[in-house]
Amino acid sequence: MMGECEPPPGSAGAVVVRGAYKRYTSSAVVLNGLNMTVERGTVYGFLGPSGCGKTTLLSCIVGRNSLDAGSISLMVKSRSNIGYMPQELALSKEFRIAETMSYYGHLYGMDSAVLKKRKEELYALLDLPSEEKVIEKL
């Protein structure tokens, strides 16, 4: 069950997970009562063996999957404001930087004006080379 995109009363957490439970089959419980709080302004990493629920939890946090029980509360107006880096980086080596940003922007439903502004912000923030540079050559 997904919580509203508001933190619980009295919480300073940007992400608050309470009683997270997720089962894929009768024998495959991957989250069993997980509680966690990620404080605002922090970077958080998940470590654990394959199959322990790291990707499942992240998928639930960003709204791609839902919990069977428990809640996730977020201090964001929209789940599209949440970013994460998966274990396997999913960049096509043949794409240029601009194509990659456009691809993911459209995948997340960004309109052209918002996407253009966000690309400009990322180029400045990350000091990226030319948008025509191919990913494989970075």
Automatic annotation (TrEMBL):
Gene3D superfamilies: P-loop containing nucleotide triphosphate hydrolases. Residues 31-124 form the ABC transporter domain. GO terms for molecular function: ATP binding; ATP hydrolysis activity. This is ABC transporter domain-containing protein. It comes from Apolygus lucorum.
